[in-house]
Write the structure tokens for this entry.
Amino acid sequence: MIFFWAFFIGGLICVIGQIMFDVFKLTPAHTLSTLVVIGALLDGFNLYEPLIDFAGAGATIPITSFGNSLVHGAMAEAEQHGIVGVITGMFEVTSSGISAAIIFGLIGAIIFKPKG
């Protein structure tokens, strides 16, 4: 049943993004930013962790999880290091994912020779 809920919740997040494209005519950048902010707000109200517990990868793979990670890392570090921890916590938690995206994007560009 966990696979069903992961697929359903992940698909629901994607449907919300598609509706933002089609109905509200938002650009990809606006849609991306909005979904990140929604994930951050849900974590701020302690609603994203229960969603992760319920849906697993369906909640951790979509872009809303990035907003969750930003707030989660900032809050955890703020408790230990104060206001400086807010900034460093965001980078600490998300740096590996961002670094991987940059590295894999560079490798893909080298291998496949994009048209520019």
